[in-house]
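Action item from last week, closing it out:
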Amino acid sequence: MSEINTQKDVYLFTHGRMDLKEKLENGLISKGFSKEKMIMALPTKVGEVGDYVAMLWRPPTPDQIKIQVITKVEEVVPEGMVGLWRGVSKEDIESIPLS
């Protein structure tokens, strides 16, 4: 596992489960991320290499938070709900139980 730089931005993916957003944020805070660095992911704006993605996993009934680091960002034509994130490569680095 990679060392997590909690000073980087972390983009949140709730997969439609806004009822679990607070649990997602609290899980990240327990890992040292500050709430100020948490950004709701939008299809129109992506992070940079070295930033993080935190998502509720596995939709539709998540039981964990998957943390990934962004390893590559390519220009793409936005498509559907995924939008520009279609061009983002990520690597799994950690999971946190969603309890």
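Closing note: The longest helix spans residues 21-30.
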